[in-house]
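Suppose a classmate hands you a notebook page containing two proteins, each written out with its sequence and a corresponding row of structure tokens. How would you begin to make sense of it? This section walks through that situation. The first entry is reproduced here exactly as it would appear on such a page.
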Amino acid sequence: MCMLSLIFSQVMYIITLSLCTVLVCYGLGRHIYYIPVDHQSEITRWNWIVQPFGILALPIGKISVVLLLERLMGNTCVRWRWFLWMNMALFTASMISSSIISYAQCNPPRALWSQVPGAVCLDPTVNANFALFGCAYSSFLDFTLAIIPITFVWKLRMSTQKKVGLYFLLGMGVLSGVCAAIKAAQSTELGTRQDVSWALFSLYAWSASEIFLNIVCACVATLKPLYDHLMKSKPLPRRAQHTYESRIGTDRWESV
């Protein structure tokens, strides 16, 4: 499940970056008054196209991290497992709702990027406030996923140095939480819809960074063998080590 979630998250991430590249070609990152009029409408249209992929990539990446932590914790920390999955269900539901609201705020939806006579749209601040909530919730979950390893890493039978190193890898979600917090501070500009090409650039940059760091955190279990292979010329394992998560303090991490 963790592998499938990671693959899906990576696919969504690549699609998001590809669509952002299209936006850059039309002028994303430049002030709107420097962009030709025909490109301005294209920027607005592609902005709404890319949003669902970027939004849905967030819960998928975090689910991968939760699956990793769940396997590392084993049958212990039952309360933490319930807490994580309840919050992931709520966060996923909120992200799906945010994707729907992005298009449902105007009737017909094409009124978001072009002039449609008789179109009815919600106040832009509605979508901006929902985006702010999503960014804040995402930041909260990132920091939570980074702090939870403290509850079981210190119980492992290994030296303090190894515990610190392991926790550092598992706690990289702090960086993802910082990205989400910065994105939350900038998401208020979504309600103005003025100089969109300039305002959205940093928002997409921080969002892509958050998704990338979520993927890295979920892949942390593979870093030790890769490090040994690159730095110590040790051969990579031919197949996954069984019960790696339950023996994290006795096998691969013992050779640090």
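The notebook's second entry, a different protein, reads as follows.
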Amino acid sequence: MRQLEYGTTPDAMDEYIKIGENGYFIQYLPKPIAEDIARLYSFHADKHGLPGMLGSIDCMHWEWKNCHVAWQGQYTRGDQKGPSVMLEAVASQDLWIGMHSLTIKNGTAPPSPVDVNGHHYERGYYLGDGIYPDWVMLVKAPHNPTDEMRKKFKRFQESARKDIERAFGVLQGRFAMLKTPARSLDFDKNRRHMYCCIVLHNMIQEDHGFSIGRKEEKMIRRNPPRRLYRNLRDRDAIVKEIRYRQIQNQLEADLTEHVWNLSPYFRTANNNE
């Protein structure tokens, strides 16, 4: 805690502190279960007026001071001053940070169907910005809307995406280590430091009662993730479905019409609750 809070070197504490491995990573960075997704759907629909929203996705850069010279080209982007470690994460309205993507990498995901404007979709979605591709599970704001309906949806989408910016700001505010350049020579150590900060951040959110979905062990055992595909042919079908532009355009059109039909006082009423 002293290293994370004040940014002191780990060598200064090696002699009197040792931390053993436990189940904190599994408990506070778990895969979502069906009950968690249902609560996220309900909470985000009430707060942001967006049905089927799982959270917002974005990236945060952590400057890497002691990056090896041979690696600097790999970890440097044009919009950054030097090498950095990039965290790509998802955050919900309660500032809970995690990797809650319904990924097809390992072929498992909980069932998460949702109805938007009378149309049925098999999965929820995340709010992203222009750096992300046009996939079904990534809903972005219109680039340059001209009609009032799309302008209203752009305001709602950008307002809801502030969740991830707030989460990153709170994370860096709690742990000064993430605001100072990383001094470790090993990328894996930097990764573990980042995960440690996220786990502690989620523990604080849960302790303060701000967690939308509590990951209880009995619920995880009762609702194991289902297989999305059994072979490569099924996997290719899932990939094709996620990248299908027609479904993505239909989802954005449904969300735009849904937001347009909301009461003009929707956001004012929710902010006063």
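A careful reader of the second entry would note: Confidence is low (pLDDT under 50) at residues 100-108, 215-230.
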